[in-house]
Amino acid sequence: QVQLVESGGGLVQAGDSLRVSCKASGRYVMGWFRQASGKDGEFVAAVSRTGDSAEYADSVKGRFTISKDNVENTMTLQMNNLKPEDTAVYYCTARSAGAYLSTSGADYDIWGQGTQVTVSS
Fold first, then answer.
1. Residues 66, 51: contact at Cβ < 8 Å?
2. How buried is 107 (Cβ within 10 angstroms: 0-12 exposed, 13-18 middle, 19+ buried)?
3. Which of 10, 11, 25, 39 is least crowded, fewest Cβ atoms below 10 Å from its Cβ?
4. What is the pLDDT of residues 50-92, one digit of tens each?
């Protein structure tokens, strides 16, 4: 059974950087979604099994970088120049099958417990 263990997150000020990581029990297409209080969940970024290709939401392009360590099966989201609107619970996710870097949560079947990221203005 695929398991995802998230780490990182916390409280920072606008303009700061933060990193969240997710360790998987195997090699999969993985991604991050986030959900702000009172809002629908939204795609943030995804990375291929090998880590050589990535997809980003327009709202985070140029600020966030997703990467993968395939030795440790760990995915990392480096978040720079954080904004208050980035405040949300960030969920790590993985596809147990398939190689497409989907931006739809419906295509991911394994989810982490979520980690809070709060950006103060």
1. no
2. middle
3. 39
4. 999 999 999 999 999 999 998 889 999 999 999 999 999 999 9
